[in-house]
Amino acid sequence: MNLTTTADSVMMFCILASMAIFDAFSTLLSILKKGIFVDQRSLLMKKTNRELKEMLVGVEKISKLNKKQLVDLILVAF
User: Fold this and answer.
1) pLDDT digits (tens, 9 = 90+) for 10-61
2) Which string of b and e fits 14-34 if b means at least 16 CB within 10 Å?
3) In angstroms, rounded to a whole number, what is the distance separating the alpha carbons of residues 46 and 71?
4) Best CA proximity match to 68, nearest among 35, 37, 52
5) Other beta carbons within 10 Å of 1
6) Where does the chain cross the membrane (predicted)?
7) CA 36 and chain centroid, separation
8) Which residues, other chains included, contact 73 with Cβ-Cβ below 8 Å and sequence gap of 6+?
9) Which residues are CB-contacts of 66 (< 8 A; sequence separation ≥ 6)?
10) Which of 15, 28, 47, 56 could form a disulfide with 51 if both were Cys (CB 3.0 to 4.6 A apart)?
């Protein structure tokens, strides 16, 4: 190997490593935005009553509950 091939290899490694680090960092930032710190109540309030009732399969006496009551029941159950 000559100096040019070695330099190219090192440069390619640095580029690939920096791309991997950038991807990992952007993934960590997206977790904060999308996942862990999102209010579960607000996510559930966006669902329809039918979707909420489907989440409560096996729970009795939910047919007359309103959306807020269904969300409260889901948050208590899980």
Assistant:
1) 999 999 999 999 999 998 888 877 767 667 888 899 999 999 988 888 888 8
2) eeeeeeeeeeeeeeeeeeeee
3) 10
4) 52
5) 7
6) 12-32
7) 7
8) 56, 59, 62, 65
9) 49
10) 47
